[in-house]
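Input.
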Amino acid sequence: MTPATSHASAAPHREPAGAGNRLVVGGAALAWSALPEFALPAPAAVLAHGARDALAAARHHAVHGTELLITTGSRVDAALRAELLDAGFALTDLADGEPLTVPPARPRAAEPGRLWLLTSGSTGRPKRVGHTLDSLTTVRGDQPDRTWLCPYAPGTYAWWQVVTLSLTQPGQHLVVVEPDQLDDWPALAAAHGVDAASGTPTFWRRTIYRDADALARVPLRQITLGGEPVDQAILDQLRDLFPAARISWIYASSEIGAAIVVHDGRAGFPVGWLDRSAPGRPTLSVRGEELVITSPYHGVGLDGPVRTGDRVQVRDDRVLITGRLDSDEINVGGSKVSAGLVRDVLTAHPGVAWARVTGRRAPVLGRMVVAEVVPSPATGAGAEPPDEAALVRWCADRLPEHAVPRRIRVLTEIPVKETLKSDV
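Output.
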């Protein structure tokens, strides 16, 4: 990818508005302004080894406007490392907080104020998308004081959304979850007064599966979901646990920013939002079965309609996002099956905590529908978790015959990646 040629203005050399907000990192509390300071080359691709490193690099950019990309070492393989060096980035490894820098293979002038994000790589190798602190900051109005949980991997779009909120808004405190704290984050959150949390549907499902009672003890007033298709089952489970909280789901990506925000407790968004034009708001369209978005929060060079690669289906008064175009559709003997809609049927079963649906090669039909499920830890007084035959019957009562899974494998744990997704 060629770096952007347009130049963003440098950030002011002063502490950001949220400098006094409280951060909790590794169980220790400090303020943004108390994070360690270090010199960074420009442009720099920072490999963060923990939340403190990543937050310090983000603050460095907010103060100095250094052209910057933040990611974790686990995301940068040898090929991506060479690609970044060839694109003019100095590769800076924050080992123990001390920058260790490899100079770029092709030095170039820095672009002040530019931030780069790596896409998730779900459609191939990660790509770089250019932003600024301003384009990543989508919450601008006055907000009630909140203490936010941030479980995301540093440098991802979702991570920047929570980080920019705390950097730019006084009263928006941050409790960061390190990877080794993910299993027990509700205890950490309750101890530090977290009342707002953002995570993927897999993150929320996994937490409910592991210890719903511990989650219910966190005094959440704002719950946000994003990063994966959001189905009605997980929204209803969260509503049961937190009847007084505002529950929102957000459709966002590195390319087009935060484009859809829904607060009504229902999966999908209203059909009436399609092709609606309003100043400063994204325009949502459907071409074929693909979601197309024109967004004011887009990355560099992505103005105008952007094909998202996500498949949508209109059902009654809602537009449902079912999954990626290249993986959601299963062709069973010439009939199309949406893996996402089959997944939604499975997760609607009270005894299913999580499900993944895929296609498998089969004689005659070409492909057949198969699934993996994780049973809920409790399915009611005296009830046994559903077996494969029971789940097949459940699906047969709700789906056309060709869409019913022919094999269902039971797993004992909800799989999750560094991105907090299951790749469903």
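The longest helix spans residues 201-216.
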